[in-house]
Amino acid sequence: MLLHHQRPPRAYKGYSLSSTTVMRVYLVLLANVAIFDAETTSEGYLPKSNKPEIISGNLIDHLKKHNNLLRADRWWPDQSPVDWSVQCHYPATPQTDSSTSFCVRTLQINCRPSSVRAVYQNVVFKSPVEQISLSVRARGEQLDPAATASFMGLLALVELAEPSPPVFVDVEVDSSRLSARSNDEPLLVSSVYRAPAGAGGVQSVTVMAGCQGYVGTVLLSEMRLDAESKGVSIEGGPCQESHEEGSKTKSRDRNLTVSAKPVYLLGEPHSEGFRGLRDDVSLVTQVSMDRLGVLEHTLDQWDTPVSLVIYAPLKDGRPSGDDWQRLYISKKVTAFKLHPSSVVSLVYSVDKGEQYPINALRNIAIRQAHSRFLLLADADFQPSPDLARRVLPLARDRSRISSRASIIVPAFEYADVPHKSDVVAANKQELMQLIHAQGIVSPFRRKESPQSHAATDYWRWYTASEAYEVKPSSDKFEPYLVVEKNAHLPLYWEKFTGYGMNKISHMSELRVAGYKFWVAPDVWLIHVPHRLSTHFADHLQNATYRLANRALRFEFLHYLRRKYHLDCNDERAL
Question: Quick one: CA torsion of 529, 454, 118, 504, rounded to 10 degrees?
């Protein structure tokens, strides 16, 4: 068993059969090729001198009576580029059917030293299992470690039926073994995890296949997950709903878990539900106490109400709620000279190791706002001049068409940190100059995560004079929105804390809830660069941090399917 940030024990290593779920591939031009499918296996693929013992009996007997629970069509990629292809190799041991090569579906990843590149899959078991086994085959091309901490292969987050700390099991590929091989036959690595007594068994597993901290290309194939209890194979799948009837698996719907209690520094929260709201736009945002400085740029162009939540982390073991914190923050807030209908609240952390509760803070800001329309934006984005005044007529008009209308505000970013003396684009024409003539501004995260804002259709926006509707289909689209504060508006899923999936998940629920999206033609937001936090570095470079976040994504999808009665294969919740 591997607890958080520990290396798991290696239960067995050696060579095994190929996966029984590889798609059948017919290669007309390639002679003497053996193709694996869900029915056939070949003992010749396992070197007879090195057959490991696994669970009971030998590996071949074990695989013949078990089904691989990892499905080829259920791997979910994040924004990192990966490729799937059919790769052939030539086993060192001659095959019983006289074939000379095997061709299998293979994941190809160009590894990077400073970021995790991976795909993910979640499996929920029909009933809790005692034991799981994981295996993968790997080949490498010009692979070299390039970071102090590195990883390559499979990493699994195990969810036990009884509450417990995170359990990570890895199936790590040793790059030195790859480079030492004299043939192109992939290296097999594998691992077994058995649930401890009293844990209630394994309820689900989220598997990551990828690499981090390397330079070069890794090719992963025949990724396999088996599960059993008392020697009997246990079935599982990507959706809990398919197993609910007669299942003893505990519900995973544990949504709102953050107990943040705000202290109000300025104004009082709106207390009449959706009645008595002002017919204007509030900027709804949140910020950590140590990032209050970024609000100077944000609020410089904003003259309507603000709904702001400030988070005060626990430091040096001192109890939250110190007078010095409140005094310091109050002075900062006073200096912002906010609109009289603004509301500013303070939330203290309850634990020194607490991750930034970003979605809980966003929900507080939504609830306390006094305006009918809300601009949902992060504190490090500077609104364009007169944004609220310009977008309000459009928001009113679209709300008459649909109570589930939203307005997309295109997002841009500065190439460098702007100075206070720098000229702010007063209109769209001046912004176009900054983008096309001077190269000072560009679409937000265009290179790092192109799908995040691609559906905004920037090239159309550059010449648009009227609002236009977009119908986003990507589950990675995360625009900044103006929405109406009404009973239809979903809140953010509060289990997402820190970095990763927190805003994308909200956009996913808006799509499922039937929201429509129009792009405003004459307003925008510009991201102001600032120093990155250590949590963001973890999100980029720490494999266990990334996997834990992606496991939450799958849990969120289970929540969406139950709430909106979605089919397991509904593309909006895959």
Answer: 80
- Amino acid identity, residue 529? P
CB 463 within 8 A of CB 435: no
Q: Which two tokens stand for residue 438?
A: 């001077």
CA distance 247 to 239: 13
Q: Is residue 344 part of a domain?
A: yes
What SS3 string covers 327-347?
Answer: HHHHHHHHHCCCCCCCEEEEE
- Residue 343 tokens read as 């509301």
Judge if 180 and 321 occupy the same domain: no
Percentage of the chain modeled with pLDDT above 90: 60
Task: List Cβ neighbours of 425 (8 Å cut-off, separation of 6 or more).
Answer: 384, 385, 431, 433, 434, 441
Is residue 25 very low, low, confident or very high in pLDDT (cuts 50, 70, 90)? very low
| Segments forming the whole domain that contains residue 301 | 263-531
| Calpha distance 129→475 (Å, rounded) | 31
Structure tokens at 406: 């939203």
The answer to whether the beta carbons of residues 489 and 483 sit under 8 Å apart is yes
Q: φ, ψ for residue 144 (rounded to 5)?
A: -140, 135
CB 416 within 8 A of CB 527: no
pTM: 0.85
Pairwise CA distance, residues 386 & 281, whole Å: 11
